[in-house]
Write a structure and sequence with these properties.
heterodimer, A: 430 residues, Rossmann fold, four-stranded parallel sheet, B: 92 residues, alpha+beta, Ubiquitin-like (UB roll), five-stranded mixed sheet, 17% helix, globular
């Protein structure tokens, strides 16, 4: 039988999830035992995993990590997963390439070193495999047998694939009008895929109601009742970036914002590395990137607000189309604390940026990657991002998932008869 | 106006475990006031010290997020369905 949220109290015996010791409310600090709960019973604030991390021997920890597998489990000592996680059936995502993007740097005028963290290299071609891998371990620990989620597309595929590998049933929910590539990728792994007539926020609301209903009993919703664990998977982006930079913090990092969770967890990961002595403690700036058609966080940032007013999304960047971002207020705090910013670009700029990254670095990003590259360019143009500093830009998914975004303006240079004369006539020779 | 209110799991300690309760009121504010009369303590979980909706609570009247409507002054027509939902779900 699955562990029920109502059974969880601070003094309840905890499941074994490595260094994780409790869930802590980010708003009021109240602590709860490890369980499938996600909102504070006192104030509704988000719960996050609190740890007893392995401090005191940074050199030993660094060696242990470097000797680990070439996936996120090399960081198992810093994650809410069982110690033997690497031996369990899992998609084993992560340790994706950090591409030194010298051609893009020249185009953008970056002289301090520009890198693209290319998470399209994950098993289902988006960063979602990282977070789902952690949620799978939590689901196992709490005795769930069905995995579920509300998804803008990438997550549905990641959950479907992870469920198959790990031996779970799955039922995932998406807005009915997603890009064809994402629908196919979500459906191909089997399990149930349900289109909801509405936008992502409607899907999310539906899932939140389902979880409180007997219909959803025994289900592990990776981004609802397993969300505190799931979110921790994004910390591995911070760990990998620093390790791949030679155990060094980047000066600046540009991160896409949907719910904002990824950005907050990357910040958490960077702070943990500093606290553990794995990297030198120096200032870093975190920048958030949104699409203009769904820009509740950048709108609030630019207006100087502390609260995020929800929007109705209308953008081609559907994986970022969350109009009511749960972690929006924390993104504002982090951008302001670190001296970063939150900016947005319109759909045309997103497409231009996808093509810019493709033609300079050979990386075909999905629309979310277009948003981060487009916003990076805008931040440089506006003088908010310092081109003389080391900068990392995230590409969180594969362009093959969002072909519709670039297809109308991308195609063959010419279509000719199979003859040398035709080729010459088309003006393509030499 | 009589409405039905869906109660999230973390507030069901106030409703004796019931997932849905009836309430009266012509606006969301009045409905929450009526809920408090019958389920003492629930209002303080939904509203902050200033009497505003807590930032991590979403409330829907029928299918409309009240933050897009008139907030606590959103009308609650007879027979309306109201959902109180933790906002910290979804995405990544």
């Amino acid at each position: 039988m699955a562990v029920q949220a109502t059974e969880v109290t601070e003094n309840a015996p905890s499941v074994a999830l490595g260094p994780a010791v409790a869930l802590s409310c980010r708003e009021c600090g109240e602590r709860f035992g490890l369980g499938p709960i996600f909102a504070c019973a006192s104030c509704f604030g988000p719960l996050e995993v609190a740890y007893d991390l392995p401090g005191g021997d940074p050199e030993g920890l660094r060696k242990r990590i470097e000797a680990g597998p070439d996936n996120i489990w090399r960081y198992a000592p810093l994650l809410p997963v069982p110690d033997d996680v690497a031996e369990k059936p899992n998609l084993n995502p992560g340790f994706t390439k950090l591409v030194k993007a010298d051609n893009l740097a020249r185009e953008l005028g970056v002289t301090g070193g520009l890198y693209v963290k290319d998470d399209s290299g994950n098993p289902t071609h988006s960063f979602k495999d990282r977070v789902v891998a952690i949620a799978v371990e939590a689901a196992r620990a709490f005795g769930f047998t069905t995995l579920s989620c509300s998804s803008t597309g990438n997550l549905a595929g990641a959950v479907g694939a992870a469920a198959r590998r790990a031996g779970f049933k799955s039922c995932v929910f998406i807005p009915h009008d997603l890009e064809a590539g994402k629908v196919v990728m979500a459906a191909v792994y089997g399990g149930d895929l349900v289109g909801i007539e509405g936008n992502y926020d409607d899907v999310n609301r539906f899932c939140s109601e389902l979880i409180g209903d007997p219909l959803g009993e025994g289900w592990g919703f990776v981004n609802v009742n397993l969300r505190p664990y799931y979110g921790e998977g994004s910390k591995t982006l911070a760990y990998e970036i620093c390790e791949q930079l030679g155990w060094r913090l980047p000066d600046q990092i540009v991160i896409p914002i949907a719910s904002g969770s990824q950005l907050t967890k990357i910040d958490k990961g960077l702070k943990e590395l500093i606290a553990l002595g794995l990297v030198e403690d120096r200032p870093y700036k975190i920048f958030g990137a949104q699409a203009e058609g769904c820009s509740p966080v950048s709108t609030a940032f630019k207006a100087g607000h502390d609260v995020v007013r929800p929007q109705k999304p209308d953008t081609i960047a559907k994986s970022l189309a969350i109009g009511n971002p749960a972690d929006g207020p924390y993104v504002l705090d982090i951008a302001r604390r670190t001296g970063g910013a939150v900016e947005d670009v319109n759909d045309e700029q997103v497409v231009d940026a996808i093509k810019l990254l493709a033609r300079t670095e050979g990386i075909f990003a999905e629309t979310a990657g277009g948003v981060t590259v487009g916003v990076t360019k805008k931040l440089i143009d506006d003088g908010l991002l310092d081109p003389s500093l080391t900068t990392v830009v995230l590409n969180t998914g594969d362009g093959l998932k969002t072909l519709d975004a670039v297809a109308p303006t991308t195609g063959p240079t010419a279509t000719i008869r199979p003859s040398l004369d035709a080729f010459r006539s088309a003006g393509l020779a030499g | 106006m009589s409405v039905k209110v869906r109660i999230p799991t973390i507030l069901r300690t106030y409703t004796g475990g019931q997932a849905e309760v009836a309430a009266e009121g012509a606006t969301l504010s009045e409905v929450i006031g009526d809920l408090e009369k019958n389920h003492q303590g629930i209002a303080a979980r939904v509203l902050d010290d200033a009497g505003k909706l807590r930032r991590f609570v979403n409330v829907y009247v029928n299918d409309d997020d009240v933050r897009f409507e008139q907030g606590l002054q959103t009308p609650t027509p007879d027979g309306a369905g109201i959902s109180i939902i933790p906002a910290v779900a979804g995405g990544c």
